[in-house]
Protein-methionine-sulfoxide reductase catalytic subunit MsrP
Amino acid sequence: MLIRKPADILPSEITPEPVWRERRAWMARAGALAAAAGMGAIWTPGGARAEEAEGAALPATSNPAYALMDKQTSFKDITTYNNYYEFGLDKSDPAEYANKLKTRPWTVSVEGAAGKPRTFGIDELLKLAPMEERIYRLRCVEGWSMVIPWVGYSLSNLLKQVDPTGSAKFVEFVTVVQREAMPGVRAGVLDWPYVEALRIDEAMHPLTMLVFGLYGKVLPNQNGAPLRLAVPWKYGFKSAKSLVAIRLVEKQPASSWMKAAPHEYGFYANVNPGVSHPRWSQATERRIGDGGGFFAPKHKTLMFNGYGDQVASLYTGLDLRANY
Ligand SMILES: Nc1nc2c(c(=O)[nH]1)N[C@H]1C(S)=C(S)[C@@H](COP(=O)(O)O)O[C@H]1N2
Ligand SMILES: [Mo]
């Protein structure tokens, strides 16, 4: 997203040089180690996994109220074409490096303007509410989209546990930093930790989902294990991965992207085909998996990513051009 051109340009042309340098050095180290161990291509930088959860079944009941009829993106595409800048800027970097992420032990602190702020363990969060499968469209600000069967439940289930007070006007989401495991963090790029935020009514909206899995399995690390957000009517960058803290606050927080490029990424980030990114149109999108690469048929981007019936009323009276 710091990139200066649309997503269809080769990553090597848009990736800041320090990230490439770090990536090359890392691959050289990994290659040398693999050769030394005689393990060749099957060697993984994470070595023995810290936990077995990834890939395990995560049963859920399909929620027909949230099932898009679009063709679902393949598991392979969803898990190999990712944005998780802590692991690098290439779409393939998260799948390559995120196996080093340690997802146990894991806690999420829900703090700030709340009557009963506290810390939740991941096992408690997995049992907090019934797991639902919801098929959501994810629209990246870069101009591509996917259709993903997420597993999780409405974030409101968790927020209600801590009794937000009247001064909780916004909710800030803080994501994990594991410097040793994250080449993108060591390279700079963004102001870490990756932080996102929603207005309290957006956060409490039933569509806003706390996600623990996809395609009926525990989330792969590259998709934001052990838990992430899915806010389907907003550009993908709002859906922060690997959450460690959720803060109820009075003032509108600045997200990492707002700090990095305030003229390009606003607080609201509602999908809006009528408001172009300063460097490209948002009128259409490329559906990952359609084939054809650059020449794939374009899909029309829908206002609020197609969720207008559910969410448009949240923005009555708000100028969505000024509040992009
Ligand atoms: N912590 C963190 N969360 C993140 C990002 C990131 O770089 N770091 N990228 C965002 C962006 S730009 C998008 S489009 C989605 C991509 O989610 P996916 O890789 O599961 O499709 O994650 C979002 N959440
Ligand atoms: Mo994105």
Observations:
- The longest strand covers residues 144-154.
- Residues 41 and 222 are 19 Å apart (CA to CA).
- Residues 3-52 have pLDDT under 50 and may be disordered.
- The two ends are 15 Å apart (CA to CA).
